[in-house]
Amino acid sequence: MNWQDVLAVFGEIFNFSNYGELLPLFRDSLLAGAVLGVVGGLIGTFVMMRDLAFAVHGIAELSFAGAALALLIGVDVIGGSLVGSVAAALILGLMGVRARDRNSIIGVLMPFGLGLGILFLSLYQGRAANKFGLLTGQIVSVDATQLNALLGAAVLVILALLVIWRPLTFASVDPDIAQARGVPVRALSIGFMVLLGISVALSIQIVGALLVLALLITPAAAAMQVATSPRIVVLLSVLFAVGATVGGIMLALGGRIPISPYVTTLSFAIYLVCRLIARRRRNRGITRRRMV
């Protein structure tokens, strides 16, 4: 590969020709990305506190199966994704409270959901781009109807989180003491899993079923590397998620590459920088306080 080939590949990845004309056309997509970044940053904080990273991946597989079935039978893909996510979240919430039980259930559900999704996509005879979009995201094509539905679901998740924020934080940090003090730990766990299922279904529109962890896990994980208080963790998690999502959409506008590589790369870069900052602090003897 010579320099001309390298420049050609670079031009495929980053193409800013006619960028000023394209940007207004994707205003709805940018707004949707910003809203989903807020949801991902908020939910991701509790995902990290409750050690549910593996659960996010499992729910994403069932969400993928639901979306693929919806694509096959010709109904709304977002609705199918939502049904699959919430069903998986309810199963995990009802059957596995403890991490060991939960992980074993997820290990059973993941291949089942992935297999169903592949089966439904194999039977689908429509455009290949529709199949690929379920795996890699396609938010640049969001229309007004989808945007309104997405905003409604996002507002629902955010309001529900704000209502249960304090008891959910208590139950996430120390479930045994929270239960002894009368906090409905099991009900909160099931309720949070439903909110997580909705968030996964929404996030799949941006990064697809394969890379949903980049939106729901990585920003919160990066924030926990550098923040010194729970409030700062939440704030940074939201900022990182919005930055990666909106930045990824803006970088992807002019190119022909799916949006997910841009979002995941930005998200990983943010985590890497935060990791280096945390390491530098440790070398200087600065310890960060644990989240309580």
UniProtKB/TrEMBL annotation:
It is a multi-pass membrane protein. Its main location: membrane. Signal peptide: none annotated. The chain crosses the membrane at residues 30-50, 62-92, 104-126, 147-168, 188-220, 232-253, 259-278. It holds the Pfam family ABC-3. Keywords: Membrane, Transmembrane, Transmembrane helix, Transport. It is found in: Cell membrane; Membrane. The keyword Membrane applies. Belongs to the ABC-3 integral membrane protein family. This is Zinc/manganese transport system permease protein.
